[in-house]
Amino acid sequence: MATISFDKDLTIREPEAVSKLIEVLSSNEVRPVNKKLTSAKEMERGEKLLKQCLSNSKSS
Amino acid sequence: MLIQLEKFLEMASEEKVSEVISIFKCEKDIDIENFIKDKAIQFEKKSKSRTSLIMCEEALASKQFKVLGYFSVAMQTLKIPEGTSQSQIRKLDGLYAKRGGDTIVDIPAFLIGQLGKNSLYKDNISGDVILEYAISSICKAQEYVGGRIVFIECQDNPKLIDFYSNNGFKKFRKDPNDGLIQMIRLLESDDKK
Predict the structure, then answer these.
(1) Could you say which of A19, A31, A49 has the minimum Cβ distance to residue B1?
(2) Is the pTM of this model over 0.90?
(3) Over the stretch A20-46, which tens digit does the pLDDT of each residue have?
(4) CB < 8 Å from B in window 8-27 of A
(5) Residues 28-47 of A with CB under 8 A from B
């Protein structure tokens, strides 16, 4: 990970990198994702707990 | 338990949020620690990225803040070099080689710009779980705006490359300017379901 990634120019100059990118994008290798981790219900539960926690914190 | 930094800032003072994230330590990569401490709030306010904190649920329930890990996502574009054939551009875009009559020169990607765990609680969460949270968040954004790619850059370290490879990322390039390894993961689209 690198903070620089947020702002850098991501030009893919090498033809072999373009080919590799196409290879990945053309594949069917898609991993399943656990969408429940960020479901509305789960996010709401987190906010509720955070709110309760903050209500006991003097400097919030 | 996932807490969006944006929500945290709505519910608490900036001082309180800074206090909570100030205890974040990352022994393996100081950039990860510095980002959360010095840049995350600023980036959040300018909507430059969205940071989410993974907090210990049990600690929250007992009125304590324990940030186990975090990730920051943003939009980026991968620029296609001049000379790329129309058929290659079509494959990169997924549909077209031209946009508004002009050749497409970039493709959008969801960037995971930062992702790390708190060294203070390193046994309480795995990197795999943090990444799963990040991908799940990105999928939520994808439901509204579309998009096919998750992009990351990491140090040229076999352990890191293995970590991302084991989580579905494919290495496609090493940036010759800074030596960072660039990898992508394909997101589920309706025709791949």
Answers:
(1) A49
(2) yes
(3) 999 999 987 889 999 999 999 999 999
(4) 8-15, 17-22, 24-27
(5) 28-38, 42-43, 45-47
pLDDT means per 10 residues in chain B (193 residues)?
97 96 95 97 97 96 95 96 92 90 93 97 96 97 94 96 97 95 90 60
Q: What is the number of other CB atoms lying within 10 angstroms of the CB of residue A22?
A: 18
Report which of B39, B38, B69 is spatially closest to residue B134, judged by C-alpha positions.
B69
* Rounded Cα gap, residues B24 and B116, in angstroms: 10
Residue A60 pLDDT level (bands cut at 50, 70, 90): very low
> What does DSSP say about strands B106-117 and B102-103: parallel, antiparallel, or unpaired?
unpaired
Q: What's residue B152's pLDDT?
A: 97
Give, to the nearest 10 degrees, the angle between helix B86-93 and helix A15-26.
Answer: 50
- CA–CA dist B183, A27 (Å, integer): 15
